[in-house]
Write a structure and sequence with these properties.
Beta-lactamase; alpha+beta; 11 helices; five-stranded antiparallel β-sheet; two-stranded antiparallel sheet; 296 residues
Amino acid sequence: MARSLAEIHGALPEILMAGFLFMLLLLTPTAWAQTQPSVLVWDIDQDLVITGQNTNSVRSIASLTKVMTAMVTLRHDGNLDRRIPVGAASHLGAGSHSRRDVITAMLVRSDNEAAEALARDYPGGRAAFVRAMNRRARALGLDHARFHDASGLHAGNRATAGEVAALMVESLNYPIIPDTSVQRQALIEQNRGGRTRHVMLPNTNRPLLYEFDAIISSKTGFTRAAGWCVGLVVRRGDRRVVIVILGADSKQQRFDIAREIVYNQVKSAEVEQQRINAEQDTPTTWWDRIRAWIQQ
């Protein structure tokens, strides 16, 4: 049966996305075809997979691990002002820092020592924290997800793109996670010995965050085992869309894929809203049309 123009117009974003991914396969055979990243675009509110490739492949997830770290930390203790010790490897510097600042450093700058400090702060220490991460994964139904550390440096921290998407959605229930993760840069004020020191933490996902205001949650990751990864939640009109990319061949490829997807989702929402507005403004009967003409 022939599809109407309206049906084709409504399917245009999905058609464009499929074409975009196909062109990447053709144009980057040495990168895309060999590494075959996992790509998932999922409309949360309609429970609709818009685009998916290798979504069930279990692979290393690098610093996307820190989304789970943040959730387990917040479930353990919601007091963000309590101070905990942090080692010298942190961007915050060695010393005692509020849990709010430690979580900020972890989510904005992907600070590995910050993640480990939060794990050490857990009752029973780091090992107990990792066990709590895996228990939480099972409770959320993430059957393939495995965690060996809080930072994501361990290659054994693994999950599917679908499970990472579920993790991103679950993290929206902890407002500090999305709110902090999309800060383009964080300014941390520290008072030591009567002196005030400011620490500026640029976001690891700055280019996308500066380009798109529609991103409401963000986390990047990279290790040699995982490749270049990112998890995003984007506003698409009155709906939310999760975007997950695992195992991109380069930072640039990750950015190009993510940017194209975000742009298409935001733009298609604008086009859809324009269509809805036009339909609402268009008279539906001959009498409506006459009245509209009279009122002009």
